Amino acid sequence: MIGEQLVANTPETKADATIARAILRDIRHTPQKARRVVDLVRGQRADEALSILKFAPQSAGADLYTLLNSAIANAKQKNPAIRDASELWVVEALVDEGRTMKRFRPRAQGRGFRILKRSSHITLTVSDVKETSKSLSRTSTKTQTRNPKRADDSAKGATK
């Protein structure tokens, strides 16, 4: 289109990095409790993360262990040169809120008390290069602006 401008967010120096992702949806752990476990493995080597998750006392640890194994298998499928998990890094680990089931518990005098049963969406991304976490984003690596003048005007308006 006329006036479109493609601007790269990051330099394309890590174009040869192998990036593999595994997503676990609607797992019945609250996001707050799942984030406690995910924070343990973010930025770790994949083999160290596996040993941390294997002995984590939280119940989400077992599910994250199988999810990390799946991400490692996806990376090996993409790049057969990867021999084992010691060559990979956990570069991105996200926990998003999933569906919430609403249930009612009977209380005194005929009232009902609402119970929220929360679930999570967990995303693990592994790569063979540790520094790829900056280049990973949920959006594309290129941003599009239809009208460059309008983008400049909105940037100026934000600084006023």
Characterization of this structure:
By secondary structure, the protein is α+β, with helices and mostly antiparallel strands. It folds into 2 domains: 1-16 and 139-160, no CATH class; 18-128, Ribosomal protein L22/L17 (Ribosomal Protein L22, Chain A), CATH 3.90.470. It is 32% helix and 32% strand. The protein has 4 helices and 5 strands. The chain has a 3-stranded antiparallel sheet. It has a two-stranded antiparallel ribbon with strand order 1-5. Strand 3 and strand 4 (112-127) form a beta hairpin. Helix 2 runs antiparallel to helix 3 (60-78). Mean pLDDT is 83; it is low at 7-13 and 139-143.
Strands of the widest sheet, in order across it, are 2-4-3
Number of helices: 4
Rg, rounded, reads 21 Å
Per the principal axes of the C-alpha atoms, what is the gross shape? flat
Question: Which fold name fills CATH's third level, the topology of the largest domain?
Answer: Ribosomal Protein L22, Chain A
Strand content: 25-35%
Structural class: alpha+beta
Output the CATH class name of the largest domain: Alpha Beta
The CATH fourth-level homologous superfamily of the largest domain = Ribosomal protein L22/L17
| SSE run | EEHHHEEEH
Q: Provide the low-confidence segments as ranges.
A: 7-13, 139-143
Instruction: Tell me the helix content.
Output: 25-40%
